[in-house]
Amino acid sequence: MSSFEIWKRMMRYTSPYKLWGGIALLAVVGSTALQVVIPRILGDVIDIGIARGESSYMLSAGLLVVGLGVLRGITGFLFRYYGERLSHHIAYDVRNEVYDKVQDLSFKYHDNAKVGTLITLSISDVNEMQRFYAFALIDGVVTFLLFIGISIIMLVSSPILGLLALVPMLPLAYFSRNFAMTVGPRWKEIMERMQKLGNHIQENAIGAEVVRAFAREDFEIKKFSDDNAILYDEQVALVKKWGTYIPLSTFIIALSTCLVLFFGGLMEQRGIGGVTVGMVVAFNVYVLVLSQPIRFLGFVILLITQAISSAERVFEILDAPIDIENKPDAITLEKIDGHVRFEHVNFRYDDGTPDVLHDIDFEAKPGQIVALLGPTGAGKSSLVNLIPRFYDVTSGRVTVDGVDVRDLDVSSLRDRIGIVLQKSLLFSATIRENIAYGNTEASEEAIIAAAKAANAHDFVMEFPEGYDTIVGERGVTLSGGQRQRVAIARAILIDPGIMILDDSTSSVDTKTEFQIRQALDNLMKDRTTIIIAQRLNSVQNADLILVLKDGRIVERGKHDELLAANGHYAEIYRLQLADQDRVREELIRAGQMSKPRQKYDKRATEEFRSVMRETSGD
Amino acid sequence: MSDDYFEDDDQQYSSFDWDVSKRFWGYLRPERKKIYGALFASLFSVVSSVLGPPIIGYAVDEGIQNRDLTIVGVGVAAYLVTQLIGAIGFRYQIFWMAEAGQRAIQKLRDDLFEHIQVLSISFFTKYETGRLIARVISDVDTLRQAITFAVVGSFRDFLILVGIVISMMIINLPLTAVAFGALVALIVVANYWRIYARASYLRVVETNAKVNAELSESFNGVRVTKAYDREAYNYNRFTSHFNMNHRQSNVRASLIASLFFPSIELIGGVATGLLIYVGGTLVLNEQLSVFTLLTFVLYIDQFFAPIRQLAQRYNMLQSVMAAGHKIFWLLDAPVEVRDETDAVRLPTISGHVKFENVRFAYDDGEEVLRDINLDIPAGTSVAFVGHTGAGKTTMIKLIQRLYDITEGKLTIDGYDLHKISQNSLRGQFGVVLQEPHLFSGTVMENIRYGRLDATDDEVIKAATDVGAHDFILRLENGYETEVREGGSLLSAGQKQLISFARALLADPRLLILDEATSNIDTQTEKIIQDALEILLKGRTSFVIAHRLSTITSSNLIVVMDHGRIVEKGTHEELLALGGMYTSMYTMTDAFVD
Fold first, then answer.
1. Residue A498: helix, strand or coil by DSSP?
2. ipTM for this prediction
3. Are B405 and B360 in contact (CB under 8 A)?
4. Is A144 within 8 Å of chain B by CB?
5. Closest to A213 (Cβ–Cβ): which among B268, B400, B549?
6. Model confidence over A343-377: pLDDT tens digits?
7. Cβ under 8 Å to B: A residues 33-72
8. N or C: which end of chain B has fewer CB within 10 A?
9. Among candidates A321, A306, A297, which has minimal Cα distance to A126?
10. Partner residue opposite B269 with nearest CB, options A69, A473, A507
11. Distance between terminal CA atoms of chain B?
């Protein structure tokens, strides 16, 4: 995008606020005109009032200046207020657009994006744009109008004196431009350096335990303070540029004043070009009036440069393609039974990268549990992410209840799928709000019933605030296992047709895990559960176990079948559970242990079922 | 310090605070010569500002009016000289102040970062990373701007104001009264405005913080939002609540500012009008010279610029005080684990760890460990076993002295952990955590973090020993591959292997593995187990694992429950005991509740 296109696009944002923009613009023109008139009156006071001795002129001139002051106040208010109002409304619009877009962008985009960058963009970059509309635009117009207006008046009153007054403005404009051009890149460097310092802090806060564990505090401090020292140099250099530019421009304006005084005096004495004492005075004030915005010019140019680079970043996000969208004739599912089929699915994340899934073909019928097992990087998470259409398959197809997921309305599909990820993210809100995240209409009873089914109710009630306890950084810190259980309750509460558990119980102990598994078995009786696990004991009772390796299904079957096949699964079993099962059997045989009773209280899940039936009015 | 970690964000500060100012002066003090220099230099620009108008007035009245070009020439020269001196003064004011202020800021940032390095681990679970960054980066930058531009600038503006008033009084007393009237009117308006400006400023800060927090939550949780199809709900809430409040508070602040600044212009207009009428009439009656009138008119213009500046800096002052408060709050956050003044360096240890009647409770009094007695001879491999919340992780944090014990005695090789320096202790540990943390940099640099002077060959050897070499070679740039934030490039298991290599390279005397293999699949774990067998030989190690099959060969298994040790022994001994370990191992504990 060229700067000009960005500029045009930025101007398009003003179109809903034409009225305010118009008011601000008119007021700016008015205010500028008034500023141009005042020195003229001063000149006339000297030439007409004093020189000709007209005392009545003093009163009218005084009143006129007061009146102009009032008008200037009013126009000043109008252009400031409407300019800023417009700018904040545009900032609001842009920020909404960015927010909407970030939420719409697919997983693929977010895999490569940094959250910090997105936040900076929606805050700082949008603020830069806001400053552009509020200040740069208006001050740019003011500077331009003032310069034109004053130049015309001076040149008309006295072409020679006017030219003399304007000559020093040329080097001033040159220095301003230079200043703006050197400041821009330097400013960017400083911003990058600060970002680097920010990253140091981020890493050291998140990795504090690692830094301490390796006693690398001094190493980290040195890294930080080295960058901090460079920042010192960069910042001092920038301020010095400014500290040179400002006095230099002040001095150039003083030169202009001197030219006006000396040559004005000379011309008045010699009677050249009708120069009068009042004119010299008026010119003098003109130069002063002009000096303010011209000195500001460097700043305005800087603002515009910054705003354009910020807007470019914003527009880049707004224009990012969304690769997962509803087809025009997308089918909306009222209800999902949970019949999932993968038909010869191949998948890769990006063109040019190798496939992460090859020829995946299996079926999960309603009521079944399908378990995925396999080494790190085998493609388990990639596989389950295709079901809610977080990504699109590269070839083959994934169907839910017989329909290709690409033909379904994405919302209706995701509405009916409960997902619990490996690392559960909870929001800084109450536990109640977190459980109800996917079902904001849920009744209190349903929320509690879901929490009970997820084995979360008891620990929630141990907090003094119960379900009103705020979790996350501003509230209580939940352990990994507690977080997982809240996330599971959240998934249960949407009463899903398909439940996906992506290694979600590896941070709870075996006892809790067992109870959650029982609850889910009961809840998902006629629905589908897809489970990824590292621990074998959580997949043993699955209807279908798929062993993945390098993106392929290398073994499939039930626990017993796979043990008999004596392949990968049997190997994992030997490593993980064989001995534990053997010890248990031996102890039972020796009579030192009774056969385990599967004691599980079904009341919680029954309660949830009945609450959901009532609320949905079945 | 209060327990409330968020007080610093929520509190409303007074607009001026002596404590903050005094503490910041502590940072400026070493640079005071430059600051005095800058103040002195600013006097020159004050003088040039005050002298400019009378010189012009003189040149016009005595020179041009009387058609005396010599006088005009003298006036012009005088004007040029004063302006030159003023410009040079201003330049030095900025230069010296930039150097002094920036130096203080650099020191403050370094201090903050050093403090972050000694704060206890638990601090970071309460104090969000984003806020930490805001303190060290943006809040410090707010101070920087104030110190570079506002402090001496305000001093100068104030002096200009005083200088102009004095100069006016010398030239003409009655006319000064007119200007003074305008000044009083301005002060009244400004004082009134201040109240509204402060309220609107606080509201902007508040709504701003909420937009920030909401964006951070939403963007971090975007995957969950999509999974639960909550985009529309969130969007609605953002547009009609957070972002809307933000817009409204800003528009209101604009309204208040827009009312104030034009009112300066208005008062200026009235004052100029009055001057022209009164002054002009007096000139006509020959009671006043054109010089005086002209000087006053030019003065009025200069009069209002510093007042504007001072008013604008009022908003700045508020953010500076708020920023200062938060910064010093963080600097004062207490360090829980401190080296004693007479702390000794721990020599190379053999690894004999002993707990004697150890009790540990968090600050809030919550008791986590009780009656811990454990004697671990050097070279033992120890496994901690128990349900969530049993206190396993706390045990290994105490051994590393990430927390100090509440009661009892904890020694390594007979050295009380209290009495040795933390650095000398931790330098002898190798740690692998459940969630591996990698630093930005290459894979090579990340492994080398374990021992900074390791050669490339040593790094590769460590990677090979833990079975990471093969996958590293398959990465885009092998060992030189950059590790990215979020790490979408590396899987959790791969990151874990790198952190294993890092720990191995450190060649530690004590090794700690906290759920280090729960993200690693069984086959990879097997490779690591083999590597560990070599690594563990002759070293003391502490392991926590949920998957009990991984710890059966430990020399000592310690079973914990609700902060106590309930069983200890080898795998065989514990199975023979038929207690808690047996039921955990046979997975029967889940059934009998």
1. strand
2. 0.83
3. yes
4. no
5. B400
6. 999 998 887 778 889 999 999 998 899 999 887 77
7. 38, 41-42, 45-46, 49-50, 53, 55, 57-59, 61-70, 72
8. N
9. A306
10. A69
11. 44
- In this complex, the residue of B69, B121, B243 whose CB is nearest that of residue A269 is B69
Parallel/antiparallel/unpaired status of strands B353-361 and B367-376: antiparallel
Q: Does A20 score more than 50 pLDDT? A: yes
pLDDT over 90, % of chain B: 22
**β partners of residue A371:** A531, A545
Contact B269 A65 (CB under 8 A): yes
Using CA atoms, how far residue A227 sits from A194, A199, A290, B113, in Å, is 9, 11, 41, 12
Q: Do B129 and A200 touch (CB under 8 A)?
A: no
B489 within 8 A of B483, measured Cβ to Cβ: yes
User: What is the residue whose two structure tokens read 């805050």?
Assistant: A123
User: B294 in contact with A at a CB cutoff of 8 Å?
Assistant: yes
Residues 38-57 of B with CB under 8 A from A: 56
Q: Do B549 and A580 touch (CB under 8 A)?
A: yes
- Chain B hits for A437, CB-CB cut-off 8 Å, are 224, 228, 230
- Calculate how close chain A gets to B537, using CA atoms only, in Å: 20
Amino acid at A417: I
B265 contacts A76? CB cut-off 8 A: yes
Task: Please give the full DSSP string across A179-243, using - where no structure is assigned.
Answer: HHHHHHHHHHHHHHHHHHHHHHHHHHHHTHHHHHHTT-HHHHHHHHHHHHHHHHHHHHHHHHHHH
Name the band, by pLDDT with cuts 50, 70 and 90, for residue B591: low
A316-323 mean pLDDT? 90
Residues of A (427-456) whose Cβ lies below 8 Å from B: 427-428, 437-438, 440
Helix axis angle, B32-58 to B151-171, nearest 10°: 30
Please tell me if residue B18 touches chain A, with a CB cutoff of 8 Å. Answer: no
Range with lowest mean pLDDT among A242-256, A523-537, B132-146, B557-571: A523-537
Nearest CA in chain B to A508: B388
Q: Hunting for tokens 């960005």 — which residue is that?
A: A6
Chain A residues within an 8 Å CB radius of B60: 261, 277, 280-281, 284
CB distance from A563 to chain B under 8 Å? no
Instruction: Give the span between the Cα atoms of A389 and B227, in whole angstroms.
Output: 9
Q: Which residues contact A352 (CB under 8 A, 6 or more apart)?
A: none
Compute the nearest-CA separation of B559 from chain A (Å): 14
Question: Which pLDDT score, from 0 to 100, does residue B1 have?
Answer: 34
Asked if A81 and B252 touch (Cβ cutoff 8 Å), the reply is: no
Task: Confirm whether pTM is higher than 0.80.
Answer: yes
Say how far apart CA B525 and CA A348 lie, in whole Å: 27
Distance CA A195, CA B504 (A): 32
Q: What whole-number distance in Å separates Cα of residue A78 and Cα of residue A76?
A: 5
All residues of chain A having their beta carbon less than 8 Å from the beta carbon of residue B389 are: 479
Q: Which position has the token pair 């009146």?
A: A67
CA distances from A208 to A212, B5, B434, B488, B556 (A): 6, 18, 14, 21, 29
CA-based nearest distance B431→chain A, Å: 6
Q: What is the dihedral of CA A525, A393, A371, B432, to 10 degrees?
A: -130
pLDDT band at B408 (very low <50, low <70, confident <90, very high): very high
List Cα–Cα distances, B39 to A517, A557, B34, B261, in angstroms.
Answer: 73, 84, 9, 28
Residue-wise DSSP of A232-263? HHHHHHHHHHHHHHHHHHHHHHHHHHHHHHHH
Residue A117 predicted with pLDDT over 70 = yes
Helix (H) or strand (E) holding B375: strand B367-376
